[in-house]
Amino acid sequence: MAVNTQPIIRLTNVTKSYGEHQVLKNINLDLEAGKFYTLLGPSGCGKTTILRTIAGFTDATSGQVYFDGQVINTLPANQRQVNTVFQDYALFPHMNVAENVAFGLKLHKVPKDEIETRVQKALAMVQLADLGEREISEISGGQQQRVAIARALVMQPKVLLLDEPLSALDAKLRKDMQYELRDLQQRLGITFLFVTHDQEEALAMSDEIFVMNAGEILQGGSPVDIYDEPINHFVANFIGESNIIPGKMLKDFEVEFVGKQFECADAGMQPNEAVEVVLRPEDLDIVAANQGKLVVTVDSQLFRGNYFEIVAYDTDHNEWLVHSTNPAAEGEPIGLTFDPQDIHVMRLNESEAAFDARLEQYEDD
Ligand SMILES: Nc1ncnc2c1ncn2[C@@H]1O[C@H](COP(=O)(O)OP(=O)(O)OP(=O)(O)O)[C@@H](O)[C@H]1O
Predict the structure, then answer these.
(1) Whether 145 and 37 share a structural domain
(2) Residue 338: which pLDDT band, with cuts at 50, 70 and 90?
(3) Number of the ligand 1 atom closest to the C-alpha atom of 50
């Protein structure tokens, strides 16, 4: 039997403009059924606009939005099999918890006893089975957040859109909810599209992350791929902490930076092509100055609980961030070592679109 690989949601060449301001530029996105996806990017990059376009609250200026293979650009929001959990929860303050969850079902004229069963089940899913009769003003922020999720899940959507649903919670509750949401998604097996500007949250929760900036998706991939192989300076900087150092690709598997040559794992660039080299702070080991592949001078350090964050400078005045379990002496030189596969070489100003364009040109030749 053929496996259905059609994406549940597909966006092709979607743009959105408000007057002169283009807030989405040629968005292409495929979401498979049953996976946890995250849109990650800074404030104002267009994450919410993508969610609203999928939900049917905003019309795309151009391009197509598909649900299960059908174009849904003109389908009203209430007829889409998609529900949204909003950042501010948007609960009805004059209704109790159960009434809030029941609201959408009543609107769809679902029979009363079915409503009761489904509401109870949805409340149990988010561990609020006993709080149905409480007023919204009588529950905590974290519980309100769960009501908002229950209210969306009770509609049995195929896709759940979550717009920064954890941003109002304190750090501890936020971590707990990350686990719970991930667990819920896996148990229900529906597609989640989650929006955040918190890279740690995105890395912890997602099957796949789309990193956005200024209305564009710069890179999509698994958390490990995006962390280990950032496509450009922006992604490297946005996902985790990085040392990004200017360099030159001498030939395949050989790169130069800070005036020295290093073996690396990258290939396929022009000889002597100008590049940027990414080295993660946790991939650098400190050794005696005369044994290092590079020598840097320690400027300052902070104790971060399970490691020391050390700031140092090389002779070209590049700043180096190093994570070490041992402290270093400020003002003193230290040696840094790293493995060839810890060096990640990036082309300058690389984006997936630019890469794809190059590939197409290559295929046409
Ligand atoms: N109705 C509107 N009219 C004009 N501009 C809008 C409108 N809605 C959004 N924008 C603009 O579109 C851009 C993208 O907004 P969007 O809300 O999608 O960003 P975001 O990535 O979700 O940001 P945040 O993380 O702050 O919520 C912003 O510059 C915003 O000001």
Answers:
(1) yes
(2) very high
(3) 18
